[in-house]
Structure formats: C-alpha cells, structure tokens
C-alpha cells in the first residue's frame, strides 16, 4: 500500500466560494489527469468539514460528475449528501448520473449509487431510488444486496408509506433467507430498525427464521453477529427445548474477541433462560457467563466459584468498554448480590485507571463486601480516601460508612477509619465522614455516640448544607449527651436566616429536640423561641413555616407528647435502599450493553429518539 | 445507531465530520467541543444531553467521536471507535492530527464504507485495502469481474482474507505477550495479580491455509487425559473472529483461516499461579521531617538463563522534595522534579544490541538483570519545610520490564499446524514475552497519612517490608 502517502493537510484552509467557483471553471480546460478538479474538490470537502457553507457551489460541483474518476465521484457524492436536502430544487441535475451508476457493470459503483441516493431523502431522489432499489435488492452481487437492505431502512425513515406500499418490507423479509450471511445480517438490522419505530410494521421471528439466522451467525462479520443476536429478542420461544436449542448455539459467541458481541450474547442468554427448563444446560450457561449466574438460586456457591467469568474479562479491554462492562456488572450484582462475591479484588482500582472506571469500580466494591472480605475492602477504601480527585475521595469516604452499615462485624474498623479521616481536617473528607456517621448512628443506636465530641471539634470545617444538616441532626438527636449542646446550637443559629433551607429545617428540629431534652434551661427556651419565631415570621419557605407552626403548637398543647413524637424511635437504616427495584432491574438487564444499562435508566426515559 | 461520526483535534477543531442520519445537524460538533474538548474535567467517555449521546475515545491528540440519538449499544459504538483507530493505523501507520489531515478524503471514503446509516459494516483493513486505496482509480479501469471478486470477499464468510495471497516462503510467527498486573499493598499483601495475555500472530502464508493451534491449557489437557503437571488455568479466552467458536466450544481446538499479516489471535486472562517475574522490596523511612530515605531492592524471580530488560523503576517522592542523592550499582537513577519521581533505569543492552556493533556506545553498557540477580537502589530525599499543605496522591512505585521467553501464566504453545491445498512446507516461530508497563505497582503507603507531620508535609511514610 502506498500507505502514509497522503499530503492533503494543505487543503485545510478557509476559502471563498468565488475562488472555488473560478478554480472549478479553470479546471474545465487543460486538466488532463483531472488533478486540478481533484484539488478544488478536496479544498471544498475540507471547507465543509470546517463548517463553511459550500452549498452555493452546488451547480458547479455537480458538473464534475462527468469526470470518469471514482475519487472525484465520491467527493461529489459526499457534497450531495451534505447539501442535497438543502438544494432539493436542483437535484434533478444529478438524477441522470445516479441512474447511470445504478446500472453500472461494477457492483461497487452500483452499491455506491444507491447508498448515496438513499442518504438524500428528497421526493425527487426517492422517486428515482424506489425503482432502482427493487432491482438492487435482487442483484446477483451480495455486496449490492447488503447495501440495498440498509437502503430500505433509510427509505422507510424518509417515507414509511412509500416503503410499505412498494413492498420493500416484504422484500427485506425475503432477504432474511439469503444465502449470504452479510446480506442476512443487514436485512435483520434494517427490519429491527423499522420494527422499533412506533408507526413501523411489526418484526417478530418464528422458529424457522430464528434457525436460519443462527446458521448465518457462524458466517457473519462481528457486526453482523451483533445485529442477528440482537434480533433474537424478537423471538418468543414456545417450548423449553426451542429456547435451549437457540441458547446452545449462542453460547459460543461468549468467546468472541469483540466485547459488544459478548455483551449482546449475554443479553440474549439472559432472555432465553426465562424460557428454559433444562437445569444442566442452564448451569452450563451460567458457568460460561459467570455473573448472571445469580439468576438461578438453585446453584450452590461452589459452582459460582468455579465459573469462568466472561464478563470480568471485559475488564482487560479499553477503558471505555471497561466502563460499559462495569456499569452492567453493577446491575447484575444488584439482581443477585451473591454473584461475583469472591471476585471483589478484580474491582480494586489501579492507580492509573481513568476516573470514570475508578468511580464505577468503587460502586461495585462496597456492594460485594461481606464479612470475609470487609477488611480488604476497607483497606482499599482508606487508600482511595487519600487520593487527589475530590469526587472519588468523597465517594470512597461515603463507601466506608456504607460498609459499616452493611457489614456489622466491620463497623468498628470502619468507624476508626472514619475518625482517622476526620483527623486529617481536610474539609471535604470531614464533611463526607460526618454525613455517613449520621447514618451509622442510626444503624447502631447506642454504640458509637462516644465519638460525638470528636465530631463537634470540627464544626467549623462544615460549610456544605448536607454535612452541616447532618451535624446539626447529630447535635439535636444526642443533645442529652452533649454537655455544651445549647452553646453549639446557639452558635449555629447565629446565621439562621442566611442558611439554605436544608440547614434551616435541621436547625429547627434540633432546637426543638434540645428544648425537649432540657426544658428547664433558659438558654434552650430562648433558643427554641427564637427559631420558631424566625421560621414562622421571617422565612418565606412554606415547608419551613408549616413545620415551625406544627412544632410550636405541639409544644404549646402538650410538651410531653411532643417529646414522644419528636424523639420517637426511628426505623432501622439498611443499605437495601440503594438497591434498584426488581422489575426495573429485570427490564434493564434486557438492555445489557446499551446506554440505558449505563445510566441505569429505562431507555425510554434516558434517550428517546424523538425523530422516530 | 450511530447518527454521526467526528474527529476533533486537541483544540476542538473538526477534522472529520460525517452525518449518517437526518436527526443531527453539523453544528452538533460545537456541543461536543464545549462539553468535552474545552472541559478540563471530563468524567465519562459518554455524555448524554437530552436525547443526544456523545461517545468518545482518545487517540494521541485526537478525539474519535460517535454521536447517537437512541438507546445505542454502547459496547458496539466503542468497539467501532477502536476499530476505526486500528484501520487508520493500518492505512496511515499512525493516528494523529497530521495523518488525519493528510488523508481526510480517504478517511471520508473509508467511513462511508465502514458505516452505513449508522450500522458498522465490513471493517477488515485487509479487504478494505483492495478497493479503497490511496491511489486514484478511474471508474472504468476497475474491471467488473475484479470488483465482484472484491465484493464477494467483502461480504463472504472469510471477509478478513483475500484468496490470492502468495508468498515465496511460508512463515508464521506467534508472539505470546503477557502483561502482568500487580497491585501490592504497602504491607506486602498481593491485592491483585493477574495476567492479560495476547497471542499475536503474523501469518505470511499462501492460499487459504487452515491452521490448528494448541496450548497447554488445563481444560485441553483434562480432555485428553494427559499429565496436567505443566498445565495452566486460563480463566477465560476470547478469539479473533476468524476462529471457529463452535469447534472451540465442542472440543477446545483452536482452528481458523488466518487473516494475512498481523492480527490478534486470542486474548486470555489468568489469575491462578501467576509467577511474578520481579520481586520489589522497598523500605521507605522518614528521618525527622526533612529527609526520607529509600532502599528499593529488585530481585528477579526466574531461571538464570533468562533476563529482564528495559527495566524502569519509578519511585515517587514527596512533593516538597528538593533533591535526591541516588546510589545504584546497576543502571542509572535520576530524580525528575517535574514528575516527582526517581527514575531508575537499567540501560538496556537489549535495546543497544539492535544497533550495529560498531555503534555500541563505549561507556555505559550496563548488563540486563540476569535471572536470580538482585539489584538495589538507595537514596535520600531532602525535603523543604513548608507550611503550605499540598495534596499528594502518593502514587505507587511502578516497575516496567520485559522478560523474553517467559510467561507469567506458564502458558506454552504446544503446536501450530498449517494445512493448505498445495501442501506447502511452512516455518513456524514462537516467542514469549512477559512485560509490565504502568501495571506493576507496589503501593507506598501509609498509615502515617494521619500522623502528626502530615499537616506540615502532606506526606507520609512508613516502614514496611514486602513479602512474596
């Protein structure tokens, strides 16, 4: 190959329409090898790239179509794809040339012509295309057929009525039985796209077609494999055996080098397992896949251990794909927390992992934490808590707290770690620690209150609403154990009117609690009075005002009952709250590998295609 | 599916912009420029704004970007971006701004071919080169027959190989390249030790050769009931698309028709019985508040016929280091203030030996580290007192190296057989290389992060000894 020979960088310069027009005119004479035209066209393409509007040159550029040079033709076609829709009234100038190419002896030229035409969805071009497309779908060359298949999807996007009336959807269905795997794969892709449209025809597979597609699977390219695998979601097995037979043929794809193939295969296997009955096969599939194992509770933990964890291998791919895999693993382990429990080490961060990989690993780590590995996980989290990236550090600190809440035997060590972190006096670390410690107090009442004095020493470091509110909650809740609670509260309320609502709410409740604990102290009386007066008279926020009135009346009517209500026992805190709803999870697992599975949101919510 | 494909340079200038669907406007590039290129803190390779998602991969100074407007298969989009980079490398030798600008017309041709309406199509560089070339082609000069050969090839079941390959000498080179990932805590516990293996093949074989490949994989050996003494356990393996996955699944044979030239045949992972080629034993001691002393010993852990080359040990120093005096018996060690590390290199005789003998520099030919050998670095870092606390990430000690003819996993190629119609004789070569680059890390840690000096120095040290 001539390889690195390109010398086109010099064309990357802004030019004027007039100049290009003149140059094109000049090129009409004395341009034997068409080098002049080639040069001008390259300049024009470069200018399109840079965002300059080259559409005024439409008629001039179209003139070059007569040049028998494929390179020039391709550049003109690119120009047409860019500006065709804008210049719909002049497109009739090029139809003739398109039609000629559609009937060229060279299959590459035929395919190029229909591919380009279908990129210009204007009535004139579509009209010309429909006839040609019909021939091309039956072309003897597979390359033309595979291009034509995608053209049908484009045609459908532009004019669904025409595509349906013209019988193109049926022709696409016929292509599913084509002898060439690439053609089959593209027909599947096109039909799936059409089937996904709300107004589109329904695309479902029956066993015969599914079987046919599976045969093509062995011969198609990696991308074709993905389109075919994806389409299997449209097949609803009627018998266990059918699902099992298909699964057996999909399993082998788990060893594919392309991680998109692997993730799509996992998705299909997960789907098919809903219809399967053969325990042995299911166990085998699970062992091959690893993580989705948890779908089946009849498997003992030792089987989990011996699994070949395909999905973990995806972590040796590029960081972007790792990220996709990690977000999916997070879904899978939420569905079955027992899964991957012996593999927490795989998710330890490397120093040079990109931040998004680190954050995704961090979220998985604490979820895989159990009594047996809590020490290791904690040691890692402590390590991360001293890194540089603030967001990462905060999440690490938060994870330490969650670990304490999740794994009771590790709670002591976690609290010690949090105290060590507070000792660093790094503002954001301290704030994050205070926030999680509040939850730890609720999880283990009566166990760790001894550390409150340490927390109180760092009151000045708290400048964010969430941490401040957490600290105020702690002061209020344990006002009976903090000797100088009234002093602290007095200081904190000093700036009451400037605080954000979150903090004001916390202050209000804490002041009431303080008063209930120490009803006879003059300071607390004055304090609660002051706060209630502010909330009911000076603050505009209705929530705050309502709550103020409520407390005021409760205290006025019966302080003892008020005390019972305000200091009532709180429901226990668990980490289950961060787990996703089962139905939503199952739904998301059917979108394995897609954007929805990364954002953990139903695809209809997170990325709707409004144009469809 | 993919609605648009872009390439940006570091400044955010558009070098390539191609829309595949009418749901996007060209100006979408500005959004990416603002959100990603000019954003100094990009925290995800995917950014979704409304219904538009931007997927980006960095390659040298470029951003390779795909834009979608649907719930796209994210893994597919990234795999496609990686593939584009591979193709570009194969065409232009390198992927950077210069290469893209110099070949932008060709790139437009390529991306018109490898994505249709957002669906990735045949993207095998070898086949693409038969009809998308850097030379100008006159339409009529491609004979129709020639073209149908190409199209059959591009859509066929072995679309990665041309049928008409001819070599005078039929050779196949197999390189087993293993990257060791090690993460060791300051206390010497192995947090993570595993091997990412790649089997690269360079096939220079005529015709349509049928290859069979065998390893000392435990599962294979179990099957044939042979002694499993030298067997390795592979956690998982994934293959190039040329390998017949159904055959691998049924009887674990790796059989395939290889692409012509270089390709990655197989990728695997091993986590059991990983043989760590180098032991690193650091002792870091804080002397008062103004000095930190280091003793780092590296010991090779393999047969003395082998040796480690290209060894580079990077020892991080506190941010307020002013100087480090380095003592080494082997190699050269130097404090690099800009990176806050001491770089200790074994000036590699491997690299040197590639030069003709006459060019060998006469002065420093420091030998490689032989198997069983032990080398030590000792040094003392002088610190300035500072009241300004700087956050220091405390990077781990990082060791890069290469060991030829050694596999950390223990993997061995048992056989490679080539069958071809014409029954030619072929020569097969196998090489093994175990390496680490940025993946072999020993943490320098400390509980002393919380000690009393911390506020003053922002750094911590501790005594520790590494155990293997």
UniProtKB/TrEMBL annotation, chain A:
<dbReference type="InterPro" id="IPR002553">
    <property type="entry name" value="Clathrin/coatomer_adapt-like_N"/>
</dbReference>
<dbReference type="InterPro" id="IPR016024">
    <property type="entry name" value="ARM-type_fold"/>
</dbReference>
<dbReference type="GO" id="GO:0030117">
    <property type="term" value="C:membrane coat"/>
</dbReference>
<dbReference type="InterPro" id="IPR011989">
    <property type="entry name" value="ARM-like"/>
</dbReference>
<keyword id="KW-0653">Protein transport</keyword>
<keyword id="KW-0472">Membrane</keyword>
<feature type="domain" description="Clathrin/coatomer adaptor adaptin-like N-terminal">
    <location>
        <begin position="23"/>
        <end position="555"/>
    </location>
</feature>
<comment type="function">
    <text>Adaptins are components of the adaptor complexes which link clathrin to receptors in coated vesicles. Clathrin-associated protein complexes are believed to interact with the cytoplasmic tails of membrane proteins, leading to their selection and concentration.</text>
</comment>
<dbReference type="GO" id="GO:0006886">
    <property type="term" value="P:intracellular protein transport"/>
</dbReference>
<protein>
    <recommendedName>
        <fullName>AP complex subunit beta</fullName>
    </recommendedName>
</protein>
<dbReference type="GO" id="GO:0030276">
    <property type="term" value="F:clathrin binding"/>
</dbReference>
<keyword id="KW-0813">Transport</keyword>
<dbReference type="GO" id="GO:0016192">
    <property type="term" value="P:vesicle-mediated transport"/>
</dbReference>
<dbReference type="Pfam" id="PF01602">
    <property type="entry name" value="Adaptin_N"/>
</dbReference>
<dbReference type="GO" id="GO:0012505">
    <property type="term" value="C:endomembrane system"/>
</dbReference>
<dbReference type="InterPro" id="IPR016342">
    <property type="entry name" value="AP_complex_bsu_1_2_4"/>
</dbReference>
<dbReference type="InterPro" id="IPR026739">
    <property type="entry name" value="AP_beta"/>
</dbReference>
<comment type="similarity">
    <text>Belongs to the adaptor complexes large subunit family.</text>
</comment>
Automatic annotation (TrEMBL), chain B:
<dbReference type="GO" id="GO:0006897">
    <property type="term" value="P:endocytosis"/>
</dbReference>
<keyword id="KW-0653">Protein transport</keyword>
<dbReference type="Pfam" id="PF00928">
    <property type="entry name" value="Adap_comp_sub"/>
</dbReference>
<dbReference type="Pfam" id="PF01217">
    <property type="entry name" value="Clat_adaptor_s"/>
</dbReference>
<dbReference type="GO" id="GO:0006886">
    <property type="term" value="P:intracellular protein transport"/>
</dbReference>
<protein>
    <recommendedName>
        <fullName>MHD domain-containing protein</fullName>
    </recommendedName>
</protein>
<dbReference type="InterPro" id="IPR001392">
    <property type="entry name" value="Clathrin_mu"/>
</dbReference>
<feature type="domain" description="MHD">
    <location>
        <begin position="169"/>
        <end position="443"/>
    </location>
</feature>
<dbReference type="InterPro" id="IPR043512">
    <property type="entry name" value="Mu2_C"/>
</dbReference>
<dbReference type="InterPro" id="IPR022775">
    <property type="entry name" value="AP_mu_sigma_su"/>
</dbReference>
<dbReference type="GO" id="GO:0030131">
    <property type="term" value="C:clathrin adaptor complex"/>
</dbReference>
<dbReference type="GO" id="GO:0005905">
    <property type="term" value="C:clathrin-coated pit"/>
</dbReference>
<dbReference type="InterPro" id="IPR028565">
    <property type="entry name" value="MHD"/>
</dbReference>
<dbReference type="InterPro" id="IPR036168">
    <property type="entry name" value="AP2_Mu_C_sf"/>
</dbReference>
<dbReference type="InterPro" id="IPR011012">
    <property type="entry name" value="Longin-like_dom_sf"/>
</dbReference>
<comment type="similarity">
    <text>Belongs to the adaptor complexes medium subunit family.</text>
</comment>
<dbReference type="InterPro" id="IPR050431">
    <property type="entry name" value="Adaptor_comp_med_subunit"/>
</dbReference>
<dbReference type="InterPro" id="IPR043532">
    <property type="entry name" value="AP2_Mu_N"/>
</dbReference>
<keyword id="KW-0813">Transport</keyword>
<keyword id="KW-0254">Endocytosis</keyword>
<keyword id="KW-0472">Membrane</keyword>
<keyword id="KW-0168">Coated pit</keyword>
């Amino acid at each position: 190959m001539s390889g690195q020979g390109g010398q086109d960088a010099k064309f990357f310069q802004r030019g004027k329409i007039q100049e290009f027009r003149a140059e094109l005119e000049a090129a009409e004479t004395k341009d034997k090898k068409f080098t002049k035209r080639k040069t001008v066209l390259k300049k024009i393409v470069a200018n399109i790239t840079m965002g300059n509007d080259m559409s005024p040159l439409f008629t001039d550029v179209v003139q070059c179509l007569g040049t028998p040079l494929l390179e020039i033709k391709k550049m003109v076609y690119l120009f047409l794809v860019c500006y065709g829709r804008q210049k719909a009234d002049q497109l009739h100038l090029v139809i003739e040339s398109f039609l000629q190419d559609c009937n060229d002896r060279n299959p590459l030229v035929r395919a190029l012509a229909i591919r380009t035409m279908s990129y210009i969805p204007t009535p004139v071009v579509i009209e010309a295309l429909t006839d040609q497309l019909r021939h091309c779908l039956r072309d003897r060359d597979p390359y033309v057929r595979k291009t034509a298949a995608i053209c049908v999807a484009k045609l459908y996007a532009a004019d669904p009525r025409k595509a349906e009336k013209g019988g193109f959807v049926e022709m696409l269905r016929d292509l599913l039985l084509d002898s060439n795997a690439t053609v089959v794969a593209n027909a599947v892709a096109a039909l799936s796209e059409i089937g996904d449209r709300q107004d589109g025809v329904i695309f479902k597979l029956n066993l015969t077609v599914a079987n046919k597609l599976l045969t093509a699977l062995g011969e198609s390219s990696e991308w074709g494999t993905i389109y075919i695998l994806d389409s299997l979601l449209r097949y609803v097995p009627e018998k266990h055996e059918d699902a099992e037979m298909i699964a057996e043929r999909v399993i082998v794809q788990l060893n594919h080098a392309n991680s998109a193939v692997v993730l799509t295969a996992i998705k299909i296997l997960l789907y098919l397992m809903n219809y399967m009955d053969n325990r042995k096969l299911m166990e085998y599939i699970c062992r091959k896949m690893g993580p989705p194992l948890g779908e089946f509770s009849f498997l003992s933990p030792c089987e989990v251990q011996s699994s070949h964890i395909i999905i973990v291998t995806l972590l040796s791919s590029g960081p972007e794909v790792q990220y996709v895999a990690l977000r999916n693993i997070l879904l899978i382990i939420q569905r079955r927390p027992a899964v991957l429990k012996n593999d927490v080490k795989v998710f330890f961060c490397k120093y040079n992992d990109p931040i998004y990989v680190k954050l995704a690993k961090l979220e998985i780590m604490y979820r895989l934490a159990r009594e047996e590995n809590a020490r290791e996980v904690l040691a890692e989290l402590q390590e991360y808590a001293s890194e540089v990236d603030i967001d990462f550090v905060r999440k690490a600190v938060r994870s330490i707290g969650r670990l304490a809440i999740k794994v009771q035997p590790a709670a002591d060590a976690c609290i010690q770690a949090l105290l060590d972190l507070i000792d660093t006096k790094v503002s954001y670390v301290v704030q994050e620690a205070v926030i999680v410690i509040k939850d730890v107090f609720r999880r283990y009442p009566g166990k760790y209150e001894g550390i409150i004095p340490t927390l109180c020493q760092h009151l000045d470091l708290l400048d964010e609403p969430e941490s401040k509110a957490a600290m105020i909650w702690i002061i209020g809740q344990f006002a009976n154990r903090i000797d100088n609670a009234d002093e602290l509260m007095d200081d904190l309320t000093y700036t009451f009117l400037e605080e954000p609502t979150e903090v004001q709410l916390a202050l209000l409740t804490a002041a009431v609690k303080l008063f209930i604990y120490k009803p006879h102290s003059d300071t607390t009386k004055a304090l609660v009075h002051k706060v209630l007066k502010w909330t009911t008279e000076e603050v505009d926020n209705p929530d705050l005002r309502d709550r103020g009135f409520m407390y005021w009346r409760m205290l006025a009517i019966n302080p003892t009952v008020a005390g019972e209500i305000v200091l009532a026992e709180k429901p226990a805190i668990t980490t289950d709250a961060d787990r996703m709803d089962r139905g939503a999870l199952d739904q998301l697992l059917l979108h394995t590998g897609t954007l929805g599975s990364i954002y953990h949101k139903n695809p209809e919510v997170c990325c709707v295609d409004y144009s469809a | 599916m993919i609605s648009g494909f872009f390439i940006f340079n570091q400044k955010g200038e558009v070098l390539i912009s191609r829309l595949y669907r009418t749901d996007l406007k060209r100006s979408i590039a500005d959004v990416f420029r603002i959100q990603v290129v000019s954003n100094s803190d990009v925290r995800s390779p995917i950014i979704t704004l409304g219904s538009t998602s931007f997927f980006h991969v960095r390659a040298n100074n470029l951003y390779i970007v795909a834009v979608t407007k649907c719930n796209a298969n994210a893994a597919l989009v990234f795999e496609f971006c990686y593939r584009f980079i591979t193709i570009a490398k194969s065409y232009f030798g390198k992927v950077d701004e210069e290469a893209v600008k110099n070949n932008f017309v060709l790139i437009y041709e390529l991306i018109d071919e490898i994505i249709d309406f957002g669906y990735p199509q045949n993207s095998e560089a070898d086949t693409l080169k038969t009809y998308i070339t850097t030379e100008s082609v006159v339409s009529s000069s491609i004979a129709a027959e020639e073209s149908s050969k190409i199209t059959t090839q591009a859509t066929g079941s072995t679309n990665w190989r041309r049928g008409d390959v001819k070599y005078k000498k039929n050779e196949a080179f197999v390189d087993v390249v293993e990257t060791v990932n090690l993460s060791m805590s300051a206390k010497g516990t192995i947090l993570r030790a595993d091997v990412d293996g790649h089997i690269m093949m360079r096939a220079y074989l005529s015709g349509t050769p049928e290859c069979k490949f065998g390893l000392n994989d435990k599962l294979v050996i179990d099957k044939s009931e042979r002694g499993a003494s030298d067997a390795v356990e592979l956690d998982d393996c994934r293959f190039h698309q040329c390998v017949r996955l159904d055959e691998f699944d049924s009887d674990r044979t790796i059989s395939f028709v290889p692409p012509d030239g270089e390709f990655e045949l197989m990728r695997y992972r091993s986590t059991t019985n990983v043989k760590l080629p180098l032991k690193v034993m650091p002792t870091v001691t804080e002397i008062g508040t103004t000095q930190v002393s280091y003793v780092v010993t590296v010991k090779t852990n393999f047969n003395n016929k082998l040796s480690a080359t290209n060894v580079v040990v990077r020892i991080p120093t506190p941010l307020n280091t002013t100087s480090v005096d380095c003592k080494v018996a082997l190699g050269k060690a130097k404090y690099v203030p800009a990176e806050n590390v001491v770089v200790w290199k074994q000036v590699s005789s491997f690299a040197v030996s590639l030069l003709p003998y006459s060019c060998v520099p006469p002065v420093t030919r420091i030998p490689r580290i032989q198997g069983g050998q032990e080398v030590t670095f000792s040094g003392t870092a002088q610190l300035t007192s500072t009241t300004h606390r700087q956050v220091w990430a405390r990077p781990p000690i990082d060791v890069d190296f290469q060991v030829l003819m050694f596999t950390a996993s223990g993997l061995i190629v048992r056989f490679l057989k080539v069958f071809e119609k014409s029954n030619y004789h072929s020569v097969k070569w196998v090489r093994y290389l175990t390496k680490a680059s940025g993946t072999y890390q020993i943490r320098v840690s400390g509980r002393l992060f919380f000690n009393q000096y911390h506020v003053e120095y922002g750094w911590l040290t501790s005594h520790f000894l590494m155990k293997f």
